[in-house]
Design goal:
By secondary structure, the chain is of the alpha+beta class. It contains seven helices and 14 strands. The longest helix is centred in the N-terminal third of the chain and has 18 residues. Bound molecules: zinc ion (ZN).
Length: about 260
């Protein structure tokens, strides 16, 4: 697949959301946006900082709540997909985690290769000087691991004609560009998410005891951070006429629906 430039009306080829999600002692799940995304103090992060400080590196693990997980969303073109050939040539919103984001930022950074010498960084989102991204999801138990995904060599955007990769014509590029999604509508806005007190209130309502009761002493036991691989499980939203405003507005639900089925 191919990461695509931003929609003509927007500037960034990706948006980021940060969420906390963890299990409370009573078995219920608690989730909220992490306010650090907006440069604001976040009660869950504050709690975790205090817990690390109080219990230290080893013991702290048993007391901290779920760290925030960044999720990124970009437009991608499916160049070739033997598992689902009907998706080839289509534009999707692609949601991905820190692992794929690191591959993007590594690709953008100049680095020294033992054999090849200096390898110049490039912009993977560029029509002409980007590169195809070979996305490999390996099923491990119920998680998908993406470690072996990687960028191919730099070349203009292309399509798979069944035998080889063929460069897109300018007309075909225009066509792809016309199908780009806007991404700003997927980004959680500060005014739409719970503020500091709102998170404390929601936590109290679900947990039955406040987050900061007796300082950090009554720490709810958080589920250990075992779900790292599932965080990188991406999901796709087809850019088709069928995607209504309703689906786009409620992205969380929409993405989770896709992820679950
Ligand atoms: Zn936070």
């Amino acid at each position: 697949m191919r990461f695509l430039p931003s929609h003509p009306d927007e500037f960034a080829p990706f948006v980021e959301n940060r969420t906390h999600m963890f299990q409370l002692q009573n078995g219920m799940w608690f989730g909220c946006d992490c306010l650090s995304k907006f440069g604001k103090p976040c009660p869950i992060c504050d709690y975790n900082r205090a817990a690390w400080k109080k219990w230290g590196r080893e013991e702290g693990r048993n007391h901290v709540l779920g760290k925030y997980k960044p999720k990124y969303i970009s437009n991608v073109l499916i160049v070739r997909n033997p598992n689902a050939p009907d998706t080839e040539g289509k534009v999707f919103r692609f949601e991905y985690g820190p692992l794929v984001m690191k591959m993007i930022s590594d690709a953008m950074t100049d680095h020294e290769d033992q054999e090849a010498g200096l390898i110049k960084g490039f912009n993977p989102f560029d029509w002409k000087t980007g590169a195809n991204f070979v996305f490999e999801g390996v099923q491990v138990g119920k998680f998908t691991k993406n470690d072996s995904s990687h960028f191919g060599s730099q070349k203009p955007i292309n399509k798979w004609n069944g035998k080889s990769y063929v460069e897109l014509t300018d007309e075909e590029i225009d066509e792809v560009e016309s199908k780009l999604y806007t991404l700003a509508d997927c980004e959680h806005k500060e005014e739409d998410v719970k503020d500091y007190q709102g998170i404390l209130d929601a936590y109290l309502a679900k947990n039955g005891a406040p987050l900061f009761e007796g300082q950090v002493q009554n720490a709810p036991v958080a589920a250990p951070a075992t779900s790292t691989s599932v965080d990188d499980e991406p999901s796709f939203t087809p850019n088709s006429a069928a995607s209504t405003d309703e689906e786009i507005t409620d992205t969380d639900d929409f993405f989770s629906k896709l992820a679950n089925g």
